[in-house]
Amino acid sequence: MPRPTAPLRISASTSTRAIHPALTAGQPLRPRVTTSNVPGPRSQSILQDLNRSGDFRTSLVAVDYAKSKGNYLTDADGNQHLDCFGQIASISVGYRNEQLEALAGSERFRIAAMNRPAIGVFPPHDWREILEAGLMKDSVRPRGLTQIFTANCGSTAIESAYKAAFMAYQHKQRGHSDFTAAENDSSLFNSSPGSPSLSILSFKTGFHGRLFGSLSTTRSKALHKVDIPAFDWPAVDWPQLRYPLEENEADNRKEEERCIALVEETIERWQAKSPVAAVVVEPIQSEGGDNHASPFFFQRLREVTRQRGVYLIVDEVQTGVAATGTFWAHEKWNLPHPPDAVTFSKKMQAAGYYHTEELRPSAGYRNFNTWMGDPARAMQASEIVKIIEENGLVEHTAQVGAQLYEALRGLSARHPGLIQNLRGKGQGTFLAFDCETPAQRDELVGRMRNKGVLVGGSGARAVRLRPLLIFSEKELEVFVETLQAVATEIVA
């Protein structure tokens, strides 16, 4: 029998500020799982029934959202789970948040939800007011980006940003003049000059969505891409950093310089074939394994793109809205010049991209769809921003993330074969580590779920944490206790 492992104590020196009790009022004190496995029998029955009329093979549990609260998700079997995955990083201020539900009950919200407009043609009379209360608020809008395009999801935000980059690139190429007759006519037959050969450069193991343009820049999992026609666009290596970062600075700097050199070389080489109009990059590669890079890397990337006349699109669909301890992850880069576009979705509960004046289309209807977002979701985003600011959740996430990182570092020292390459120091609760093998990672995630704690996998063997912004010391202690118990079971 293995010797019992002493509990890992949470350091009091990194104690976090208390959040307002109303944010977690009524949530369970800790997980409770009464079924022998998760999903339990009722969830399994519901999912099997759903699968008869649609593909629900990826579903983990059937959720009872009416009974979920705060940091805890309740499934159809009554199991209560501490949610450290946050609906794939898309829940921000908790389940059944009272302020959000009060908004949903208001007449203004009901009118917006039940009379969804085609914003580009029939915007609501208070659309500017809605935007300035949240998405376009000075404390929210990324520095240097004065324009916004609202969209329906993260993938459509990326697709629309790509279109804007192509339009702006070609507008510069033709000297800011109007389209020629040849361009107009040939575009309808998908041929040059109206349909030019241009490309978006992305990074290997990156993820930007599952539609055609976004999928062409997604490089993280073959299952998403196989059988789907794709644009012939370039991809370069993402820096393969060594951890801990502070002990490998020299080697990591060389690796990042190597990858920046590849970016420059690729832009140059593709100029004759299919000029690179934009580079798209995640601050932290999420689906591809939670892969990091330093501010130096992103500063050099911004420098190279500006020198080459290439637009820089920062994909903050997953990293945005306080998850990394700043409102936007790219704030930490201290760029001398802002990105040309920053996409958002998930925790904002609305989607779109911010951009410079230069990416504003030269004519109406060029970047357009029926809805172009949703006023009800924009109202929800405004209320989420209000909750975040009133409760100091950006600072709170930075503090609790530092405490969580230290706890994980202690567990990594105890179980170095199971918890490897811990990363995310200084990145709020946007933390991850690797297991030794993919099978071991899947076992860890499954055992955590059976004990009532939800975490996610990414890449080949990474475990990623995406707790809610209201995740605090109580939840941290439950998470660490559960992970320690699971680690002991696996290595026994």
Automatic annotation (TrEMBL):
InterPro entries per record: 4NH2But_aminotransferase_euk, Aminotrans_3, Aminotrans_3_PPA_site, PyrdxlP-dep_Trfase, PyrdxlP-dep_Trfase_major, PyrdxlP-dep_Trfase_small
GO cellular component, one term: mitochondrion
Chain positions covered by the region annotation Disordered: 1-46
GO biological process, any: gamma-aminobutyric acid catabolic process
Top-level taxon in the UniProt lineage: Eukaryota
Record-given protein name: 4-aminobutyrate aminotransferase
Source species: Jaminaea rosea
Family from the record: Belongs to the class-III pyridoxal-phosphate-dependent aminotransferase family.
Listed Polar residues bias regions: 33-46
Enzyme class, UniProt record, top EC level: transferase
A Pfam family hit: Aminotran_3
